């Protein structure tokens, strides 16, 4: 996401399997970030929707991600479902696995 020539948000995707996701062609949303001063302005939502549309255009059926605890509600509000229990990523903190079936 670019605003007035400044990168204010980004999203990265990679094709990657997960032992709890039964789709061998699934993609992981590996990282998503929006600068603090631009959070709460639907930029993250727009980035996520754009990423999902991009994957859908490539006939990808499943997107998944490791979600920080504080971001669970954001993903739930965007129709992601939690799969399994909370786990810890060393030096990063607690996360949950979430996924979404794409149309």
Shape: globular
Helix content: 10-25%
**CA-based gyration radius:** 14 Å
Along the chain, the helix and strand elements come as EEEEHEHEEE
Q: What is the strand tally?
A: 8
- State the end-to-end CA separation: 24 Å
Total DSSP helices: 2
Mean pLDDT: 96
Give the structural class: alpha+beta
Q: From the structure provided, what is the oligomeric state, counting identical versus distinct chains?
A: single chain
Low-confidence stretches: none
Largest sheet: 6 strands, mixed
Strand content: 35-45%
Structure commentary:
The protein has 103 residues and is α+β, with helices and mostly antiparallel strands. The chain contains 2 helices and 8 strands; from the N terminus they run ββββαβαβββ. The chain has helices at 43-57, 72-76, and strands spanning 2-3, 6-7, 9-15, 27-34, 62-68, 81-82, 87-89, 93-101. The longest helix has 15 residues, at 43-57. Strands 3, 4, 5, 6, 7 and 8 form a 6-stranded mixed β-sheet that branches. The chain has a two-stranded antiparallel sheet with strand order 1-2. The chain starts with a strand and ends with a strand.
